[in-house]
Amino acid sequence: MSDYFNNIKEIKFEGRESDNPLSFKYYNENQIVLGKSMKEQLRFATCYWHTFTWPGLDPFGGQTLQRPWMDSGDPLKMAEVKLNAAFDFFTKIKTPYFCFHDRDIAPEGDNYLTTKKNLEYIIKIMEQKMKETGIQLLWGTANSFSHKRYMSGASTNPNPEVFAYIAAQVKDCMDATHYLGGQNYVLWGGREGYETILNTNMKKELDNLARFLELVVDYKNKIGFKGQILLEPKPHEPTKHQYDFDAASCLASLRKIGLEKEIKLNIEVNHATLSGHNF
Q: Domain ranges in the chain?
C-alpha cells in the first residue's frame, strides 16, 4: 500500500453524536434496512476520475492539486503510485466498490499498442489489489473525450479512423472490466454531439452511433461478459448539443436501434440537473 494516507485511520461508524469529522454519523454498513445491510442497499463506489485524477483546475486557471502521482516522471510509474494510494483510500473509507475511465488508471501512450500495453500492465496490478482488499469493480468505461482525436466526437465522428480507434479502445476497456469482474460497463460520450448544425451531418452521425452500440452489445456477448451495459445521459458539457441529452432521448434512441432490452441507463444526478430535470 502507499504511505499517502498514513496519518488517517480507517473511517468508522460512530453515530450522529460523534464530533469526529472523520467518522460516519449515519452510515453503518452492517445495519439492516428492509432486509439488507446498508452496504448492500447503497453500494457506494469511489470514482477514480473525480477523486484521484482531476487536477483541480478551471477555465481561468491551472492545476491546484499537488499529489505524488501527478509529479513529472514516468507516466506508468505515476499510475502505480496513484493505484496504491487509491486502494489505500478505498480501504480506509470502506467503500465496497470503485469505478474508472481507462485513462484514469493507465496513461495514454505514443500509439495505440503502447496505450493497450499500459492498460494491461496496470490491470494486472489492480487485480492483485482487489484480491488483497476484497474491493470490487462496479463499472469501467473508456475515456472518449479527453484526447484531441475526439474533438468532433468518438463513435459519432464522421472520420472512420476515429470510429475505428474508439471501437478498439472500448474493446480493450471492456476486456479489462470483464477480466476484473466488473458488474457493469458504462458508455458516456462527452463529445457525441455537435457545436453547430452548419457543419454536421446528423443522420450520418446517428447512424454511426447506432452501429457502434450494436458492436458494443455484440462484443459483450462474444466474450461472455455478464455485466450490464449502461448508457449515461448528459445534455451538454463539453459539447454544446449532445445526442444523449436525457433519459428520454436515450430511451428513444435505444428503441429505434432495437437495443432497449440490452442497454440500461446510468443516471448521474448532476447530469439530470443540467438537462432541466429533477432527479
A: 142-279
Q: Is 104 a catalytic residue?
A: yes
Active site residue 101: yes
Between CA 128 and CA 40 the distance in angstroms is: 24
CA distance 11 to 9: 6
Question: pTM of the entire structure?
Answer: 0.95
Identified catalytic residue from 88, 102, 104, 172: 104
Q: What is the CATH number of domain 142-279?
A: 3.20.20.150
Q: What is the mean pLDDT of each run of 10 residues along the chain (279 residues)?
A: 86 97 96 96 95 94 93 92 97 96 97 98 98 98 97 97 98 99 96 95 98 99 99 94 96 98 95 87
CA distance 19 to 21: 6
* Helix (H), strand (E) counts: the chain: 9, 12
Buried b / exposed e over 30-41, threshold 16 CB at 10 Å, is eeeeeeeebbee
CA 167 from chain centre, in angstroms, equals 16
CA distance 179 to 199: 40
Selected catalytic residue, list 88, 101, 102, 178: 101
